[in-house]
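Sharing in case it's useful to others searching the archive later.

Someone asked me privately for the predicted structure of Cadmium-translocating P-type ATPase, so I'm posting the question and my answer publicly. Question first, with the sequence:
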Amino acid sequence: MAPLDAANLRGNDPSAFVRSEGDAKALDLAVEGARCAGCISKIEGGLNEMESVKHARLNLSTGRLAVTFTGPDSEARRIVEKVRSLGYAATPFQPETGEDPGKSEEKRLLRAMAVAGFATANVMLLSVSVWAGEGEMDFGTRQLLHWISAMIALPAAIYSGRPFFESALRALKAKSLNMDVPISLAICLAMGLSFYELLIGHGDAYFDAAVMLLFFLLIGRYLDSRLRAKAGQAARQLAALQASVAHRIGADGTVKAVPAREIAPGDRLLVAAGDRMPVDAVILEGCGQADASLVTGETRPVELSPGDAVYSGMVNLTGTLTVKATAAREDSLLAEIARLVEAGEQNRSSYVRLADRAARLYAPVVHTLAALTLIGWIVIGNDPRAGILNAIAVLIITCPCALALAVPAVQIVACGRLYREGVLVKSGDALERLATARRAIFDKTGTLTLGKPKLLNPHALRPETIELAAKLARSSRHPVSRAVADAAGMGDTAKDVREVPGGGLEGVVDGRRVRFGSAGWIGADSETSGPQAHAMEAWLQVEDQAPVRFVFSDAVRSDARDMIAAVEARGLETELLSGDRSGPVEAVARELGIGQAQAELKPQEKIARIEALAGDNPLMVGDGINDAPALAAAHVSISMGSAAEISRSAADLVIQGDRLSAIPTAIDVARASRRRVFENFALAAIYNCIAVPLAVFGFVTPLVAAIAMSGSSILVTGNAMRLLRK
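And my answer, the predicted structure tokens:
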């Protein structure tokens, strides 16, 4: 993605992507090159200096910069140019064509790490030979080995050090410092001094220290980049659910395929069976059924008729519909859900890790310490060479490798442990947040229940009645039909079966006309009282005989009760939030012993409840598409393995095999991980308290500093490995 210039702007004018939000305008940009909290502060701060900009927020995971501004649409061009002047490429954010910005960076770091590792292994072999031959190796042989080391280390350091050098240069150009500046300085000084020593044939070379330092730094940088990149997948996959093409009906009645983004409120559209709704709309003509799980979370198709509202992302299952758009694509429900998901991700990335906070102090402290060491040895010791060596040793020995690995090492080990327990951890800091959760919120359908309706009253029905319904049901893939077919087992089907949209099934059995479907279609009186008044139902009618009621229920998972008890035993309060009717919700809550339950909630209402519980660091467990915003908004979230793809993407952890018992296990591992992280921070602090004074007072050479730094990294990694023990 190249930076925008005037030519690019003409071909990809950002003003075309401006949308109205009340009295203000909104623009989403894809920003490349932002990698840290400093970049966020720089970009947001720079834009907020513009008088027209009311709000700017950058999501580091997705690279999406959301800007709200006032003035004409052409102001978008100035905003893009401002971002560019800050040193970052920016283009209009187009999720359907956007690429994951983290993938190229991951590949780059991986290649740099491989080169540094190769160089470290070979240079260390040569160094060991020099050390082993000390006193016996002649000068010429030692010089030759040093020159070979230099030939390996120099190109490796130039190639592998680019991520640090470029970051340091960018910081210096902006007249600021970051943690890559002292790292780059240490590498350059070590390489430069080594060449100098090699040329004059005096002293030691420290090529091994330089490449070893790069190798360990790149391990930490790669692990952190990989974990961060996973956090931005949810919004991108949710955007993929949006239809890219709509069929607009012209004034003359002709139908023309147009990009969905060109649809405006008031346009008449034709939606064929199997198509997704491109925008929010209201039905003008046609009847049918639609998969509305995006809105309600229920897998049962909803019936549609003229006057009903439909939402973007819903799938038209049967019949052709003529609809009237009520919102543009960017203002539709699915776009709003995508923004909610991304807002949830942004909230996560706003969690500033303890290591990041410590790293903010790193650059100025280390530079000051190294400078004082150099000055002290020159002024007091009158030894410039020793001053340079000791300053390099300070820069290396204070390298935050142990600090950088303290969190990623624990996360990687904990993620591996949970993977073997059937839990996938997708967000790097998810375990840290899970460890602090004090309330667990569960969705009902598909989470605590199986999400597959079963016939509830087979004992109240005659076998021939069930078989009669099954002859129709075996011809349908409707969940209720499958439940009846499963209850009856294998068998034949009725003749001339047809499925009436919004009604049910109709066919001929032994010459008799049989219908199986909803109460309204059959003409039956649905029960409004009694223990099964709110249960899922279908009716069977043979000819003009009295209809027979079939009742269905969604069974609770076998380990749901034990899981709720185990979660509460760990000090978390439990709560049930569902979009289903109150009757089934209350029944499930009562059966599982969940004290609080709310029913018939829309996605926004679930988010509102989660936000109200923010003080309890809520853990959200769900599976439906409509749960995705709530999963993203929660402090930490878990999705079932059988959940909708977008829910799995939005969640921080995914349970494989749908074993609810994995949830308390994940909590235990998360709490143990948190303890290991703080222990690693303590180890890193102790290491620096001991090693830094030794380096300042000349007791440590650059090579010993690199080995000590590496040893501290191994120490924190070994502490993280303790998580493997159950």
